[in-house]
């Protein structure tokens, strides 16, 4: 199992890149958003990867951050969402956008991804809403795969999944801290995640205390 790959980009296609690692070329499929963020041919890059194994096919999928890789795995756990559909959703919304859409129950945002119909979009929201808090707690901008990329091409390596960089601890950002505070107050994780997402949508730069107050106002009984 390959958990991370680093090397030189030999060529780019519409849905994948070829990364040369010490003379061995690896085809890595990526979302449109990720492909746009990668450097030019001839330059070096690094991606966290997920290997999909089927009876007649092996495909490697690449992600710039661990959180996006985890979203890919979660999305593929939904009935009707394969690897390509997952990449389409992540390419259209990004990991933060996917989390926000699920927290707010906005399946129309999921449906905006290429090839995703309304029933599939609704399943994504319904099946993943209870798993959202765990990913939110990882933070919104975890360590990027290329953050420690070697400058020397000879140092580029692939790492098995068992040796890949471990997920970073929960980041001390306002959303993660607000979510933790609300769940400690006894609110259900899904309910707290929706309130935090709504508060963050209204004021993305709010500090923790302000985020908690805004979420509490949203959770307060109406009437």
From TrEMBL:
Keywords linked to the UniProt accession: ATP-binding, Cytoplasm, DNA damage, DNA recombination, DNA repair, DNA-binding, Helicase, Hydrolase, Nucleotide-binding
Record CDD domains: UBA_RuvA_C
Cellular component annotations (GO), alphabetically ordered? cytoplasm; Holliday junction helicase complex; Holliday junction resolvase complex
Which residues belong to any copy of the Helix-hairpin-helix DNA-binding motif class domain? 73-92, 108-127
Region (Domain III) residue ranges read 172-223
- State what this protein does: The RuvA-RuvB-RuvC complex processes Holliday junction (HJ) DNA during genetic recombination and DNA repair, while the RuvA-RuvB complex plays an important role in the rescue of blocked DNA replication forks via replication fork reversal (RFR). RuvA specifically binds to HJ cruciform DNA, conferring on it an open structure. The RuvB hexamer acts as an ATP-dependent pump, pulling dsDNA into and through the RuvAB complex. HJ branch migration allows RuvC to scan DNA until it finds its consensus sequence, where it cleaves and resolves the cruciform DNA.
HAMAP family attached here?
A: DNA_HJ_migration_RuvA
Per the record, the domain comment is: Has three domains with a flexible linker between the domains II and III and assumes an 'L' shape. Domain III is highly mobile and contacts RuvB.
Question: What NCBIfam families does the record tag this protein with?
Answer: ruvA (TIGR00084)
The protein here is known as Holliday junction branch migration complex subunit RuvA
Give the organism, scientific name.
Answer: Roseovarius litoreus
